[in-house]
Amino acid sequence: MSKKKLMKLFSVVVITMTLLLTSMPFQTEAKGNENPSKMVENIIKNKNMKSRILWYDLSANLDRLDTPEEVAEIVAKTAEANINAIVLDVKNRSGFVPYPSEFSPHLSESKNPTYSSYPEDYDLIENVLREAKKYDIEVHLNINTFSAGDVSYQEGPSIDNPDWQTVVYEVNRIVTDSKGSTYAIHGFDKVRLTDELIVYTPEKNAESPANQWGIDVVVERDVVVDIVDQVTVGKQVVPVPEDGYVLSGHGKARQWVLDNLSIGETVDIASVEADLKPIGETAAPAAFMNPINPDVQAYTWNVIEELVNNYDIDGITLDRARYNNVYTDFSDLSREKFEESIGEQITNWPEDIFTVTFEGNEKVINPGPYYQEWIKWRAQNIHDYFEATKLFLRELDEDILFNTYVGSWHPLYYSEGVNWGSKKYNPEYDWAADNYNETGYADHLDFLMTGLYYGDIMIEDLNGEKPYWYSVEGAADISMEATQYDTFVYGSLYLIQYQDRPEDFKRALRLIEEKMHGVMLFDLVYIEMYDWWDEIEEVFTKKTKSPHSVPGFIKQLRS
């Protein structure tokens, strides 16, 4: 062991013993037949053993962390708020990074003007590590694992390597003009994103809510009665007719409208179109990669190895270590490997997995004969990646902590191909195969962060109108239940949900510390926007220690 690591270990032991002596007794080594899960469960009661993590999102904080002086100020505030760990996002969903890399493009090389102005010789990691060490704050580096490209700007590693991309089973309603030209409708009554065509209905909107960077087409009784190109004329109020709708297009969709639609023309939005497309050819914001592609896996491990070898960090965090949604991946490679797995040939691909119909304006998935096997197979792929990555990290440096972020909605998270729970947890979900529990990967983690991303805090606040886990309290409960104390679990709050509700924010913090091993705050940008450093200090009144930072606990957990 290096002198640096030896001194770090000595410091951890001294601080840990001080904390333990001032609270209830805990052992840091397994004794006899002591169950590691019982150790993990018992630590929740120790108020001095709480992880407090602040996420520094890369894209959201570009202009907040792009100088050494700004970093020094932010890290100092972090320390004053008694936060003991930082998750520093260092590879965004487009695959760009804020440090010199052999495998990933630097932000300054991007076509996106938001990124391209980033200082090309600036190393964010180096600056954050230097300041964090002054306060003994841990730093875990986060990578957006399987998301590595920007579809709108057509850039990033997954765009540069089209064979890495997931293939999307794209089923959309389409708009058809009087000449037979068509364009996919990307949703109804939702926020319009890059290159999307959205339909706004009178049931949900009195006027088009879209911003001025697109075009609105007013349709009454299937006839175009007005076209408002807000890019040209500026922001206008565009009412949604009671007997029609508004088609709202951005980017490529706007251009299609300009090229094809005119006032007085008849249009139709009832038809449905299904196709298999590489994600780089869709309107998706980020180009996900196929998790089972060997080249993709090698790329992610190269990124991790580079970070571990070049920086003195505490841990590696994986975000978006999943499929992008339930509609991927339907590539030839996935078909081949799935057929291998079940020992059968799929006759109708992808219909034998599932088909999609519309009920009104909502998509409905209709399971095919292989649906449950497919759901389990995708989750097994992600499990196997986590297991392999854990072993890869242990070979690089066994002191590096391995962790991830996921959404807490376990009953729905199968749509991302992820079972973050315990192999011992086997609820009866209607979409799950009998042995779905075998895909759980909680036991491969040193800690897990679950997003308790709900505005309602207590279960009783739901008034029985939603499942209990649609609240912070219920989400904390299902997080602990699903993981079965296989690892330390930290509840995460999405701070934008508490804007203008600082007292509720503090209530949520206290609740999580009572029920779980710690808290993760997402994200720094909102603390700065709302100036909530004092609110955090009101709850985090004294320093605590993260359970995962105690070597004895980690040794017992990994055993």
TrEMBL record:
SUPFAM superfamilies: (Trans)glycosidases. Keywords: Signal. Residues 428-538 form the DUF4985 domain. InterPro entries: Divisome_Glycosyl_Hydrolase, DUF4985, GH, GHL10. The keyword Signal applies. Residues 1-30 form the signal peptide. Residues 282-389 form the Glycosyl hydrolase-like domain. Pfam families: DUF4985 (PF16373), GHL10 (PF02638). This is Family 10 glycosylhydrolase.
